[in-house]
Amino acid sequence: MTHGSQPEPPLDATFGEWLKWAFARNGYDPEERGVQRRFADASGIPVATVSRLLRDKGQPDVGTCYALGVTFGIPVMPLLVRAGHLPPEALEKEPPPAERPRTPTTEEQALTALGVVDETDRAAVRGVIAALTAKHRREGTS
């Protein structure tokens, strides 16, 4: 049995169908004697659980989904959807990356970010920075 070149089963396929596909794709022939034990040893998933899942006798728990993702080197989120722990919409609603304030990279950007926009005030701030830097150098502090 070879599913290695087969397309991934759709999200509404049974978990066992998907697992058989994933096995074949990763070099495990689900029909081969001893392959369930070999996979169980590689993944840390009990062999009874592997056997049950391949026979479509239940769904994996969250921990098993995680172990499958790690073992197969795939994202866990789709596995959680396949196992029924999350709705399919979860794959469409990826949270946006956390917004991080931009760190000023130049002195001008830093002064603007601080709200110091008048050129006379900017010169005064630069003078204070220069005086503090010189003081720290003299005293050997940072």
* Major pleated sheet: none
Mean pLDDT value = 85
Q: Regions with pLDDT < 50 over 5+ consecutive residues?
A: none
Spell out the helices and strands N to C: HHHHHHH
Q: Number of helix segments?
A: 7
Shape descriptor: elongated
Structural class: mainly alpha
Query: Into which percent range does the helicity of residues fall?
Result: 40-55%
Ends apart, CA distance between termini: 67 Å
The number of strands is: 0
Q: Any idea what the radius of gyration is?
A: 28 Å
**In terms of quaternary structure, what is this?**
single chain
Overall description:
- This protein is mostly helical and 142 residues long.
- The protein has helices at residues 15-25, 35-43, 47-54, 62-72, 76-82, 107-113, 119-139.
- The chain is 52% helix and 0% strand.
- The radius of gyration is 28 Å and the shape is elongated.
- The N and C termini lie far apart (67 Å).
The gist of it:
By secondary structure, this protein is an all-alpha fold. It has 7 helices and no strands.
SSE inventory with pairings:
Layout: H1 15-25, H2 35-43, H3 47-54, H4 62-72, H5 76-82, H6 107-113, H7 119-139
Kindly list the characteristics that best describe this protein.
142 residues, 7 helices, elongated, mainly alpha
